[in-house]
Specification:
single chain; 273 residues; alpha/beta; D-Maltodextrin-Binding Protein, domain 2; ten-stranded mixed beta sheet; two-stranded antiparallel sheet; 12 strands; elongated; Quinoprotein_dehydrogenase; Quinoprotein dehydrogenase-associated putative ABC transporter substrate-binding protein; signal; Solute-binding_3/MltF_N
């Protein structure tokens, strides 16, 4: 049926229903606790034991709000937002990439990038561009479906890539840990990984180094701005979090740097001073 044939009364009912739904969404947020949706095994970002840097960030935000932090644990992957945040089980997702339409993004609270992990004593330790000829013929670890996998292929390195799955149950599998172990052993010459995943682990290992990819000129961009995600329509909650981010940016930066997260300027051109 063409939309102009729908009776006005039906349109009115639909409008009222949408208004009611909006009110229900706004009422879902708890004012007694900071309710967070998170992966229980996304080390070093979030973990059920509270050791992840996103866990510590949630504690900081909770303290500023004057409420405790509570969690809904659910593995990251298809359906994560629908089954947690949108289902009303929690009110915020830490560490969400800016621009995703599944959530309402706050202002970003840091910018980071993909980069190359090598041994410090490897000749590839000076490489900072995926088109560097030195990478030719070298086994390079990468997570399939991530932006650097496209850039590696465009640089003619498809046959050199060793791929790991993007969506796994990290309570059972640890793709980043596997790649770093193989870089350390020499089985891989390098691994190209998301900075917040690799940086904290590399910081704890004196044999490895992380070099952010700041010079890529083709293919998908290598840097992304990271926000907190809230439910669509919860603009007041978003504004409250934006205010907290703005007023506590120094503490947030210090927390991330202490964790080993590489923080860039807003344009992904260099490390943030």
């Amino acid at each position: 049926m063409h939309e102009w044939l729908i009776p006005a009364a039906v349109l009115l009912v639909a409008s009222l229903a949408a208004t009611a739904t909006g009110a229900q969404v706004a009422d879902l947020r708890s004012h007694e606790a900071l309710r967070v949706c998170a992966d229980p095994a996304a080390v070093p970002m979030s973990s059920e034991d509270g050791a992840g840097f996103e866990n510590r960030l949630a504690v900081l935000i909770g303290e500023k709000l004057g409420v405790p932090v509570s969690y809904t644990w659910f593995p990251q992957g298809p359906g994560f937002i629908r089954k947690t945040l949108r289902a009303g089980l929690c009110d915020v997702v830490m560490g969400y990439a800016q621009g995703d339409e599944m959530v309402l993004n706050t202002n970003h609270y840091y910018t980071s990038a993909y980069g190359i992990v090598t041994r410090r004593d490897n000749p590839l330790a000076s490489v900072d561009l995926l088109e560097d000829p030195a990478l030719k013929g070298q086994p390079i670890g990468v997570v399939a479906g991530t932006p650097p996998a496209t850039n590696l292929a465009q640089a003619g390195l498809a046959k050199d890539m060793r791929g790991w799955d993007l969506f796994v149950d990290r309570r059972i599998e640890d793709p980043v840990g596997d790649m770093l172990a193989q870089v350390k052993s020499g089985e891989l010459a390098a691994a190209v990984l998301w900075g917040p995943l690799a940086g904290p682990r590399v910081k704890a290992d004196p044999d490895l180094q992380f070099t952010p990819l700041l010079k890529e000129t083709s293919g998908p961009k290598m840097f992304y701005r990271i926000t907190m995600g809230v439910r669509l329509g919860e603009d007041e909650w978003k504004r409250q979090l934006n205010s907290l981010i703005r007023r506590n940016q120094g503490e947030i930066d210090a927390l991330l740097r202490d964790a080993g997260v590489p923080i860039l300027d807003d344009y992904g051109k260099g490390l943030k001073p």
